[in-house]
Amino acid sequence: MNAPLPLARVEHPQPDVDSLRGRVVLITGASGGLGRACALACARTGATVVLAGRKVRPLEVLYDEIEALGAPTPAIYPINLEGATPDDYASLADAVRIQCGRLDAIVHAAVLFDGLRPVEQVKPADWLRIQQVGLNAPFLLTQACLPLLRERTDSAVVFVLDDAERFGKAYWGGYGTAKAGLAAFASILHEETETGTVRVHALLPSPMRTALRRMAYFGEDALQRELPDRAGAAAAFLTSPAASALRGRTLDLRPGT
């Protein structure tokens, strides 16, 4: 069994000004809490961001927000990860090549979580949807984009993980299984690419004030949790050449670890 990527900590992980200038970063789940924060952090430091997500209107709002920053013009690519096929991911990679001319990084920020429940109460269709978004989509998109990433002298794939002490317990069902599989996939991909130009990283955020968190912990005071901005900046940092020393590592943002 592949061990998870070892943990690492960095003081104030965020990209330097203009450190992503000229780079193209593809972000899934771009209109969600973490995806949006990552897109803004990448754009502020000069990247052209490709905003991939299911709902067009939130992507358009984010597009306008990025343009208002004076950042490079982003690209929007609507895609429903629940039903996307291998051909759909190949088409996405082709569109990035045609529209942007290159791809320097992918941040897998998309996730699907539908609440806590015992395994016997999970509908099979829901289980499959969660695996499709949380595990199959990162594999299919990464595989489709690897030829583009290998054309760069430095590129990165960033996987967003979750705390195994939490998702490995009762009632986390399909989401916990998908995150465990994603951690294993990140480790496997790192071993297969560690001598090449494609860097593999994982990100372990601290508890954030997001819709997913509210669904899992609806009784807690959300104001006690930080906004996704710090995790978004950390994800953007991992896409930059400055993060090369963290190749094959999980950047741990949890407090007190």
- What is the CATH H-level superfamily? NAD(P)-binding Rossmann-like Domain
Structural class comes to alpha/beta
Helix tally? 8
Number of structural units classed as domains:
1
Tally of strands: 8
Note the main sheet: 8 strands, parallel
CATH architecture grouping: 3-Layer(aba) Sandwich
Distance between the termini: 24 Å
Mean pLDDT: 92
* Overall CATH class: Alpha Beta
> Gyration radius, to the nearest Å?
17 Å
CATH fold name, please?
Rossmann fold
**SSE pattern, N- to C-terminal:** EEHEHEHEHEHHEHHE
Strand content: 5-15%
Would you kindly provide a written description of the structure presented here, covering whatever features stand out?
By secondary structure, the chain is an alpha/beta fold. The protein has a single domain (7-252), classed as Rossmann fold. The chain is built from eight helices and eight strands; from the N terminus they run E-E-H-E-H-E-H-E-H-E-H-H-E-H-H-E. The chain has helices spanning 33-44, 56-68, 86-100, 124-150, 164-167, 173-193, 211-216, 229-238, and strands spanning 7-8, 24-28, 48-53, 75-78, 105-108, 155-160, 198-204, 250-252. The radius of gyration is 17 Å and the shape is globular. Pfam families: adh_short.
